[in-house]
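Question thread 4412

I'm putting together a teaching handout and wanted feedback from people who do this every day. The idea is simple: show students a protein as raw sequence, then show them the structure tokens that encode its fold, then repeat with a second protein so they can compare. Below is the first pair exactly as I plan to print it.
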Amino acid sequence: MQQQNLFGNAALPVPRPNESRKPAARVSHTCFFALRPGPENAARIHEFAGKLLMSCGISGSRITPERLHITLELVGHDANETVVDAACRAADAVRVSAFKAQFDTAGSFLAPNGPFVLVGTEGMDRVRVLRTSLGCAVADQGFAPSRAYQPHMTLCYDQRHRVAFAPIASIGFHVSEFALIKSHIGQSRHEVLRTWQLAS
């Protein structure tokens, strides 16, 4: 019965080698642009995720509330100051209004580490608009933005249990800014390098 409550019915370009998008043998950090729920929303989503994961039989490694995010664009692995500065110049050029990101579906991606994620249909449209704007801006700075993009929020990694995508009770958060994040590999720690406010 618990599952029924959760699942609903409904400057000059800065050259960057292509290999910079692929993790090296010993990567210390990865930089990427992302959307992050504020502390209250992160706690609410984390609590919701706990019930959802239990109902689905997922029991792997959970993402802590402070690391919940929607990735917008990868900047690079072990990105140096020049690359980070170019990424910041790109973000400075983005002009998008604030919006609400809404998830309505959950399930497991096919990646080997078994990510269990939240995704959305129309509720992710504005995320895609922001990502397109950011992608154009980083391309102007010499980056090669990813072609394929599926906005999602990873809740957990479970290699043993995979769940088909299915509708869930809608959950989301208000997006008023995006951030450049430095993820310290192996430390489960995200460092926010800078944030950009969206228009009200």
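The second pair follows. I'd like the answer to focus on this one:
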Amino acid sequence: MREIELRLPAVAELIYHVPNGGHRHKATAAKLKGQGVKAGIPDLVLPMARGGYFGLYIEFKATPPNDAAVSSSQQACIRRLNEQGYLAIVCRGHFDAMEQIRAYLRLPKTVVVA
């Protein structure tokens, strides 16, 4: 996030992390689930409309040799988000994510017609 703050300040104002990953104590996990945390939701959300999309969702996965497969709940969520007009993608590492964010920002702004 620090690189985004330094290089893409307009993005830094809007992008946010969804705190749904990681291993937690059962009581904490139950509390978060009660608050609406759902399995499979991508890690980062950029609510800037570009290229006909309403926004960008990024699921982070590590680069090899520490990489992991995209889970079935993540695949299903990415598919549903794409069906709803968002661009939901998987990025392998920091550099891939920055490249994809820059590519997304180069798309023309989405114009909403009421």
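Top answer:
Good format. For the second protein you could add a caption like this: The chain has five helices and four strands. The domain at 2-106 is CATH 3.40.1350.10 (Trna Endonuclease; Chain: A, domain 1).
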